[in-house]
Amino acid sequence: MIMGLFHLLITCYAVASQALPTVVTNSNLYPHHFSSGVVQLIIEAYTEQILREMETRPEFKLTETQYTLLRQRMRDLYDHIRLHPALNQKYLWVGKERPQIDPDVGTPLQAEHLMRSSSKRKRYLNNDSDDGELKANQKRVSFPAEEICKTHRLWEQINNTHDFYDNEVQVIQDSVQQYVFSYRCVTETGPCIGISPLYDSECTERYGWMYMYYRRIDDPFRTPQWGFVAAPHHCACKITPKYIPDS
């Protein structure tokens, strides 16, 4: 994923150089490479290679001011990438094709693992629990776990959606594709499982926010930009009391 995002960030760097909020980097995303400065050294070496190639071609020769500005902007690219919010999202994948990895466990997606509960997993079924807690919880709860709303877990492309301010946007899917890991209801608008007959229930899909690269539809210049857009997030159970008329 990091190579795809790296490619996309470099592609848009020259287009959008706006200030970004400081964020905490993801400790699981190659922390050694960023903290040791390996990525920064790669960028500096690549910058020197570009400048040497430009010096050999008169049509690309830069003025001293342009030379200094390009060098400085490329030096800033390291922090721009390291602090970019898109790198902190395990449910966003950028690449040439749909990924086959499960972001929740870091292993390949398997057919038998494509269903999951929309509610939190029962603690007594959690493999991280110690044996004592596991046995105690199993004694207290003797019935098997049941999904309230069955869900499909899949990577999908989001092409048209809206941003945080409800503006219609088009997600950029040009040189590389952006995929979001989503949880879709198997039977949307269908009843939830295990709900009291005193209530009406309905499985419904809810959206969350994903930091993606997009264009606003109403922007006359169609300027690409990063920002939060709505993306499928989870399948929830909507419960309302039934109306029971007085007899």
From TrEMBL:
Q: Which residues form the signal peptide?
A: 1-19
Q: Which InterPro entries match?
A: Cystine-knot_cytokine
Which superkingdom is the protein from?
Eukaryota
Q: Which UniProt keywords apply?
A: Signal
Which Gene3D superfamilies does the record match to this protein?
Cystine-knot cytokines
Name it. Answer: Nerve growth factor-related domain-containing protein
Keyword Signal assigned: yes
